[in-house]
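During the no-cost extension, the postdoctoral fellow (Dr. R.K.) reprocessed legacy sequence entries with the updated structure-token encoder. One reprocessed record is reproduced below for audit purposes.
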Amino acid sequence: MKTMETTLIDWDNAYHQLLRWKVELTQALIPIMLKENYGRFVFLESSSVKQPIDNLVLSTLLRLSVVGFVKTLSQEIAKSGVNLNIIGPGYHETPAINRLLDKKAEQENISSKEAKSKITSSIRMKKMGNPEDLGQLAAWLLSRASAYISGQTISVDGGQILGIHG
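Re-encoded structure tokens follow.
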């Protein structure tokens, strides 16, 4: 959805779907983890927090709020043994990608297959990601092996992010 297509109701709904519940859940679990001096959080957001994606204004804005929340909290509890990180996936072969493909196809008056081809050709690796790639990174971030990683947003995007801090 483009910015001027949104309503305030859309914004309220996006807040509840993309931010509020994460804050509530985190605030409920952090005290337990702090008592144990150990814990791991991995938030699955989007590469749009580093480089906006067309038609995702609500997702981008609220996910950026999650990034700010995670970065701030990770600094506040840095010495505790509780780490919080974010995975920012780009385009992956999941059912959720179909919404974006359908929107792109509609806007450009092309087929969904052509929309997928356009997106894939814009990815440096020329393919969409495999969900297993995300799972392997998440498993590592949730393990003790990631003890010195906290407050980070790690892109898994096939080289899509063009910025230096991709």
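Residues 96-122 form one domain. The two ends are 24 Å apart (CA to CA). The remaining legacy entries will be reprocessed before the final report is submitted.
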